[in-house]
Each structure stands twice: as C-alpha cells, then as structure tokens.
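Something for you to look into today, if you have time. Just paste the record in under my message, thanks.
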Amino acid sequence: MNKIIVLVVMSILLGSCNERNLPNFLRFKNQEAEEGEVLIPVARVFDNYLYIQDLEGIVDENVSPADSASIMNRYIDSWIRKQLIIAEAATQINFDEVELERKILDYRFALMVYEFEKKYVTQRVDTEISENEIKAYYQENKDNFELKQNIIKGVFAKVPKEAPRIGRLRNLFQSKLTDEVKEEIKSYSLSFAASYSLDDSVWYDFEDVIKNTPLVSIPNKVQFLRENEFIETSDDIYVYFVKVIDYKITDQISPIEFVSDDIVKIITNKRKVALTKKLEEDIFKEASENNEFEIYTPVTYDKRNLAQDQP
C-alpha cells in the first residue's frame, strides 16, 4: 500500500496540473490541516486533492493488509472517477450555483432529521403486537390481502431414488395424516430424505414447494391443485412426495396465518409514523410556547418586489 501511495504522490508532484477552474460548489472539500500537521496527498484531479487523512476510517482495523490495500485502491479509483465526471459536468452544463447549494443544504438537513427521527423512534416504538391486534387489522383490511400466488398447507419430502422402502413412504403419504403417520414419515425422512417438511400448520408458496422439481413445468397449477391431494413425481436422482392438506389460489383472500408477519410490519410502521408525527408536533408546540420562532409579514414571490416587501 505504501508503494502505491508513493507512486501516486510522485505522479502528482511531477505531472502537469492542467487545472480547470471549477465552480466552488463542485470542488471536493479538502481535509483542513490542523496546526503543525502536514497533509499527504494520495491523488489529484485537476486542482482537487485527496489526502491520506481523508482515508481515515474507510478500512476496519481487523481487515488484513491485502484487503486493506484493495479497499483503499477501490476508494481512490472511485474518487478519481467521480471528480472527473464532476469536472466534465461543469464544462457541459451551466449550473445555477445558488440553486444547487440550496438543494445540497436541503439534502444535508433531511439527512440530519432522518437520523434524529430514526434514533428517536427506535428507542420508543412499541414492537409488542398482540394476536388480537393482528386479527383486528386483518378483519378491517381483508381486501388488501388478496393472494398473488397459489399457497398450500401440507407435507413433502425429497428422497434419493436408491433410498430403501420408498413404497412404504408412498403409502404413508397416501394415508390420513395422523400423529402416528407423521411420526413414521419423520423417522424415515431423518434417515433417508435429502429434504423434507412435516409442519402441516404452515402455509407455503406452491412455487417454492415445487421449485427444482419436474412439477414446475405444470401448465395449469390451479387446476392441478384442485385435482390432486397426493402428488408424486421424479427426476433422474430424486423422488418427490407432496401431500396437500389445504390450498388457496391466486386472487383469493390470504389466510391470516400467511400474512401475520406482514401485518406485524404494517402495524409497527404505523406506530413509527405516529411517533414521528408526534415528535414534530411536540417540538413545534414547545418552540411556539417559548417564542423560539417568528413569522414576519409574508413576502411575495415576485423577485422584482421581494426587497421592498421585506419588513
């Protein structure tokens, strides 16, 4: 890394400056030297310099020297490319410096407000949501939970073709799923299945269940689900068994179990929005009561009369 920095510094000191007179708002904000500090440049684009002090904190202390050098080089390369694009933009477009400075300031303030509100809300939001709240929200907003996919409840297993007693497993999947049957399927699957799921209380996206199986090419999956409770198929390596206990198809209303996690996120987000709004109102109210701001005589937006309308 030191060799790279030395080479870059030498190229800076020996190379031709060929500087462009960039507008102030397009200039990189160079590191300001503290008293007695010597700034060490590592890269230059026209009259903008990147100093080694600007690179502090970019690489974590635990990163290896090789990775550190790679990260530094990528950062320097990215900085050079951005400065070149900025310089080219300055030659191609007549920027309104005042307007750009205003937008930069607005963006800076927006970031500050965002970070403050995020911290405030994270510390105060109540993330405990009861089953009753989930059910109430579901009942009030059922129309918003139309399915965009086919879903099933069931059990399934993926078994190598050479596995023993596959006939027995087939019979189990075709049987009524009593606790004893599920326990025997589980015992078999633990020993021989490449993958399996026996939680018949969970809703699954049907596409996820049949992914990477010959069933994925079924042309009409809705009709297929209506006609098949037990499904068996195979490829060159595996045999796939699916027992469908229940299903719902696209455009039907999602069962509450399938969308409960989404409802939790929605309710939590609503609480965050309410907290943010309350924070803004509380700050405004307190500032108003303490006379911390004033609204003067409104000004017109006609630039010709702006000065004379000011109080």
